[in-house]
What we know:
7 strands; binds magnesium ion; alpha/beta; 59% helix; binds adenosine-5'-triphosphate; two-stranded parallel sheet; Rossmann fold
Amino acid sequence: xxxxxxxxxxxxxxxxxxxxxxxxxxxxxxxxxxxxxxxxxxxxxxxxxxxxxxxxxxxxxxxxxxxxxxxxxxxxxxxxxxxxxxxxxxxxxxxxxxxxxxxxxxxxxxxxxxxxxxxxxxxxxxxxxxxxxxxxxxxxxxxxxxxxxxxxxxxxxxxxxxxxxxxxxxxxxxxxxxxxxxxxxxxxxxxxxxxxxxxxxxxxxxxxxxxxxxxxxxxxxxxxxxxxxxxxxxxxxxxxxxxxxxxxxxxxxxxxxxxxxxxxxxxxxxxxxxxxxxxxxxxxxxxxxxxxxxxxxxxxxxxxxxxxxxxxxxxxxxxxxxxxxxxxxxxxxxxxxxxxxxxxxxxxxxxxxxxxxxxxxxxxxxxxxxxxxxxxxxxxxxxxxxxxxxxxxxxxxxxxxxxxxxxxxxxxxxxxxxxxxxxxxxxxxxxxxx
Length: 434
Ligand SMILES: Nc1ncnc2c1ncn2[C@@H]1O[C@H](COP(=O)(O)OP(=O)(O)OP(=O)(O)O)[C@@H](O)[C@H]1O
Ligand SMILES: [Mg+2]
């Protein structure tokens, strides 16, 4: 049964020839990989640039697939520390391929997702990786023209993809309708394509939301999507918790606004409060969520998208249909996930700390973990001594170019300047007990 597999995955082109209207990009990409195969790469890396949903990631995979390369994917979270990236690459370069692939292509998807200030070491690591790599590297980015990516642009051949026209998108949608055996009115497809703002992924998702399971799709059907778009995460969770039947809970996953990656922290954080009164309900819901998460991990690892229905059903119906479900108020009080909130709250301190670590790392020739494990505590200790404190802080403010306040934050030293800090702590402690 192929229902519920995301059409964006089901219909993701496997071959370059299936990628619509990116002829120049395809040619540039082929020339580049040919130059690699001749042992004389024109540039070590290419950077596929263009707005969301026009085929950047798709082109990378189609090329690898067509030429028999295995894709090793890296992302921004691998690069939080430059070390991790070196480790991944280091091992992959030494290890021969086990599966008869011709070799590897390293795909760095969405490099512009790197927060350059936060991941400064990361950007340098990528540049180094490009210089040292013995495998072809493909990067993608929505906007590589930001000055902070200059060094990266110089290391790579930038291939700009074309924005797709409404006609191009209609072509892609029509192909899907034919394949699914759905008779789609031209006007309906046009409406979806226009609303997508050039983003094929959005267009295909919208098409699936309105057309899946139908024999005929009319223009009127499409107008309904507008309404569904208005669901946000609060409404989605509310609907899941109140659902009494399997398909009722599962139905949220059909909403175009359903973002399953975001759904997890929301579900995980709210289950314990909503089911606080029933241990059985709580246990069932958490069990199902964790099983769903295991499946999610499997999907990500193996690209086995046919497992997706199970993952989504466990994450939605799995928390709606539980033993001893407590009676729920008509309006449940849902909260914004603590993890996301905390990350936002501590962002500034984390950035300062990372910058400090990075700086010291270079200065001391130590790894980031050594710096944070050994040196930072040492500095903190020194700062607590009257003898060293002033000298140390003076020096650090100068070296880092930060204010005294920021240096103290980065080091995590308590500063006694009135009760302000402790008041903030207090508030968050109370919240978690609600
Ligand atoms: N030119 C195209 N021809 C055919 N299908 C396309 C094309 N562009 C995108 N698609 C479809 O849209 C989906 C999203 O495309 P893709 O993941 O390549 O986007 P992207 O450019 O990498 O976007 P983002 O910047 O958001 O990552 C694909 O699964 C594919 O089905
Ligand atoms: Mg992409």
